[in-house]
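Incident review: delayed structure delivery

Summary: a single-chain prediction request sat in the queue longer than the usual turnaround. Root cause was a stuck worker, restarted by the on-call engineer. No data loss occurred. The affected request and its eventual output are reproduced below so the record is complete for anyone auditing the incident later.

Affected input:
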Amino acid sequence: MDINSFILQEIHDNLQDYGLDEETRIKKFLDYNNNYEYRLNDGLHIIKNILAEHGKSQIADHLYDLSKLEPVLGNIDIESRDHVLHTLQTYILGVYLSESFLLPQGVEIRPFTWKIACLFHDIGYPVKIAQEMLKKYSDRNNCIRDKHIKNISPVFHFQIRPTGIENLCNSKKSLPLIQKCLDGWDLDIPIQSEYEEMIETGSIRHRAMSALTGLNSIDLFYQKYNPERKFEKILEPYTNIDCNQKYFEEDIIPACAAIYIHDISPKYLPYGKRIDRKKAPLAFLLKLSDSLQEWQRPNKIDNKGLNPNLFEIRIDGRRLIMNANIPDKAKIQKEIDSCLNAPDIQIN
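Output delivered after worker restart:
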């Protein structure tokens, strides 16, 4: 049994709780033998359905844009690979890890929070792709410069500077909200200075764009239906979607904080600190799921990605063990060890 079939079997009783009630379509999406376009259409449909329950399906259009841009980037950067199919596969893997690995340890993550954190964690990638395309354009000109008139003509480059994405309604700013959440997780990462460094150097980090885009967009939904941000049940008209400010503060902000650090370099973590499952369960789950999900990620060379038969996952007592019959398995272990407090997770 491949890793997809095993996970789907293990989470069968949890599918409806996580909006995964189209089991037949999910099985087709996970089928390694189906082509990329077929899986992509199914994947986007499933993601929009999951989010539609909470009135957030429009934000998933960022993933549709990404699905059109990634093949273009593949012609520029041979190492680039899929992030759209990966988003849904990471979500499904995370359900298994949450229910079978973390919950028995007393670590509980609400399905709604996982939906937002995982399904939005790569929506900022189009900005990163735009940066790579502009770099390719300027590199061509600079190559001519270096060949003919080096040290005479100035270097030509583009710099992307997002403006206003960190601004929320009611004069709120997203970065202090994320910072407060990280501080509560005992991760005193200086988000404001790290963000300013990103802007100054022009090195766009998709995790930051994803987190800020998600928070900015969802803030607009709450502003429309609960402009006074009351901590009480306020339903969107003709729906059961509750815009209680409680959910914005207890679910949305933590989800976006987890997104902001999901692929952060260990150099930004305070010395000796790692993301801890007890203190920061959502961030722990997102980083773990994102790091483990390596199969079926198409790239320019391989339009199907790694075969799921190369991977096995199991829980042995309190240990999580993944067998990965691939050359880069040590890289997965290193990524986990560098950011997570997880001595009980082993990659073989």
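Verification: Residues 112 and 282 are 11 Å apart (CA to CA).
Action items: add queue-age alerting; document worker restart procedure.
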